[in-house]
Specification:
This protein is 34% helix and 26% strand. The chain has 328 residues and is α/β, with parallel strands linked by helices. Bound molecules: coenzyme A.
């Protein structure tokens, strides 16, 4: 028995918000956004769509690709910072929509590292307990709901979307899909990337709304530095653990935060730019969704061959980070 990715699916909302649209909303320019971030446009959900709706669309495609029914799922894990509501979990809401009545379901909050953390948990459950055979892992975000559309330093960065993977045990040869992994967190930096209000420390009130404390706040350049250091370090750890070098990696798939961050990470690892998967220009930073969106494009476009090494790496608020080496 080996643990494989049985199916991948992704979804982005139809509405496209371009840099030129943003020029009409805040004091910015297409040129500034493109040169600082590489982002040209991003997708924005409708007011009626919640994160579970985005997750549902991605999940249906992943289940179809895996050729399994929702009832066969043993676990559903949703990585998100934009859950539908504080509770019940978005995973439970998604379970109802899918009819995945045999699954136990929970959300996992690790910000932009949400998909990698969820994959690690899913992999451990599959490895450690014979009763778990098929797990749906999703990174889904409606970041447009937590962005201050008057703050040019953050609103140009983020977008909405969802990426889903079905992980499960199969008789297929070739070993497990996760060859090595390394995850980390550092709670000393909780305040450089956060949403301050809405939790138990600062519950929602008229004052928190007036002070815009329900929106993402970020110390951009500090985040930038920490992101590069953490991703490079964990990628190196994972490659060492697997006994491979940067030359063996077919694709580096980093969390799509910002073109400059991705280039800096690739440069320090010695991975050429044409082997770094990037779609940040089309979707912006979709937090936990971004790596799933990339993997879906790689799968649908047949951009990797069986046995290729794909190095996933992510970084986000918490701080959280991690890298996972996949054998495709
Ligand atoms: N349009 C035009 N000007 C903008 C702007 C925008 N959208 N946003 C900020 N500026 C201005 C600033 O006000 C500042 O002006 P000032 O010098 O007059 O004060 C100037 O541009 C430079 O700002 P700075 O923050 O130094 O720019 P930067 O080169 O660090 O780039 C980020 C800003 C946000 C793009 C960059 O720090 C970054 O990518 N950080 C990481 C963010 C991220 O990925 N977060 C999520 C991680 S999961």
């Amino acid at each position: 028995m080996s643990i494989k990715i049985l199916g991948i699916g992704a979804y982005v909302p139809e509405k496209v918000l371009t840099n030129f649209d943003l020029e009409k909303m805040v004091e910015t320019s297409d040129e500034w956004i493109k040169t600082r971030t590489g982002i040209e446009e991003r997708r924005i959900a409708t007011p009626e769509q919640a994160t579970s709706d985005l997750a549902y669309e991605a999940a249906v495609k992943a289940l179809k690709a895996a050729d399994i029914k929702a009832e066969e799922l043993d676990v559903i894990i949703v990585g998100s910072i934009t859950v539908d509501q504080v509770f019940p979990s978005t995973a439970c809401i998604l379970q109802r929509k899918l009819g995945a009545k045999n699954a136990f379901c929970f959300d996992l909050e690790a910000a932009c590292s949400g998909l990698l953390y969820s994959m690690e948990v899913a992999n451990s459950l599959l490895q450690g307990n014979p009763k778990y055979k098929k797990i749906l892992v999703i990174g889904a975000e409606k970041l447009s709901s937590v962005v201050d559309w008057e703050d040019r330093s953050t609103c140009v960065l983020f977008g909405d979307g969802a990426g889903a993977l079905v992980m499960g045990k199969t008789g297929a040869p070739g070993g497990d899909c996760i060859v090595a992994s390394s995850l980390g967190s550092d709670g000393h930096y909780t305040d450089i990337l956060q949403i301050v209000a809405g939790g138990s420390r600062t519950p929602a009130s008229a004052a928190t709304v007036a002070n815009k404390q329900h929106y993402i706040s970020m110390a951009g350049s500090e985040v930038f530095k920490c992101a590069v250091t953490a991703m490079v370090h964990s990628c190196k750890k994972v490659m060492k653990e697997a006994g491979i070098t940067a030359q063996d990696v077919r694709w580096l798939v980093p969390h799509q935060a910002n073109y400059r961050i991705l280039r800096a990470v690739a440069g320090r690892l010695g991975i050429p730019e044409d082997e770094v998967y990037m779609n940040v220009n089309r979707y912006g930073n979709t937090s936990a969704a971004s790596i799933g969106l990339c993997l879906d494009e790689i799968a649908r476009g047949n951009l990797a061959e069986k046995g290729d090494y794909i190095l996933l790496t992510a970084f986000g608020g918490g701080l959280t980070w991690g890298s996972i080496l996949l054998k495709w």
